[in-house]
Amino acid sequence: MKPISVVILNWNGLNLLKEFLPRVLDASDLEISEIIVADNGSTDGSCDYVRWMGLPLIRFDKNHGFAEGYNLAIKQIESKYTILLNSDVAPRKGWDTALLQFMETHPECGACQPKILSWHYPEKFEYAGACGGFIDRYGYPYCRGRIFGTVETDSGQYQTPMEIDWATGAALMVRTELYKEVGGLDASFFAHMEEIDLCWRIRLSGHSIWVCPESEVMHLGGGSLPMGNPRKTYLNFRNNLLLLHKNLPDSDRKKILFRRRLLDTIAWAKSVITFNFADAKAILRAHNDYRKMAPDVIPTNAKENLIANRPNILVKYFLCRKTRWSSLKISNKSR
Which of 54, 229, 262, 284 has the lowest CB atom count within 10 Å? Predict the structure, then answer.
């Protein structure tokens, strides 16, 4: 059995598979990695293409979403490591070898990610993950190399491996048994921020999350929902509230959620003032649905607030003009 299963989740993404799947095969060491496509009930000929490529195919009868699709697929995986890889990612040579070596030499590491660069602008980091994810004290995600809409050029400034808060689901390597032990991705999220929730639970289990910049991939991004789509706005706002509700300790949950919902009210008002009524409606719906879902969310019984010492990224970015990750001076471990 090969030590790595690279699982690519697909839903009616035939064009993406034709563009990127051959690149994954070319860049991977097939002595250590098996490339598997898990299909979420596609009707566009994707499965026929995967069979023509001669690759293993896990086929579902309907679209289970990002989270449950991966959960169902990984139930069938027995390799030591699994890489969750988006269908719009083109790795660079040696990407899987570098990740494997890092995980093998860092037994405390539960999951890690490569450096994520833009497919269209390879000199720049990619929005979804960049060089490792962090969460501010009110739950706002940002990255080493990307804060809100400011994406940095990669000049080697973040080339050192570093412990992070979350690794992007675009290219996430995880210990397979640990993934199963902590419950995998939360299917109630459907899509967006479920990898942050997974990484939070992995950290609560006593493991760490890292970025390994020696491994590089290029990500197209926006393959499922493009930036500015009201559906994306809805999922991000709703799931961020679920993320905090689920993973904060009892002592901090109400206080932080109250402050976060006030900040979301400001975001809603901004959408109204700028006549972006679709986003305003999405934010309201996100909060309404969060209230309905919250009673059924089972907290992790966290004893520690893992984001307590993170900066307020809104203040740092918008008021202090700290637009580069390096200016935040976050002191996580690096090796």
Answer: 54
Query: Which strand ranges, in their side-by-side order, compose the sheet holding 141-143?
Result: 133-135, 141-143, 146-147, 150-151
CA 260 to chain CA centroid, nearest Å: 21
- Residue-wise pLDDT tens digits, 26-65: 999 999 999 999 999 999 999 999 999 999 999 999 999 8
Residues in Cβ contact with 265 at an 8 Å cutoff, skipping those fewer than 6 apart:
none
Please tell me the pTM assigned to this model.
0.95
Beta bridge partners of 133: 143, 166
CB 38 within 8 A of CB 58: yes
Rounded Cα–Cα distance for residues 122 and 180 (Å):
34
| Closest of 179, 162, 195, 165 to residue 110, by C-alpha | 179
In sequence order, what are the residues at sequence separation of 6 or more whose Cβ sits closer than 8 angstroms to the Cβ of residue 302? 204, 247, 248, 249
Q: Which residues contact 303 (CB under 8 A, 6 or more apart)?
A: 249
**CA distances in angstroms from 199 to 59, 110, 302, listed in the order given:** 26, 9, 14
Q: ∠ at Cα 64 (245, 241), nearest 5°?
A: 15
Q: How far apart are CA 84 and CA 74, in angstroms?
A: 9
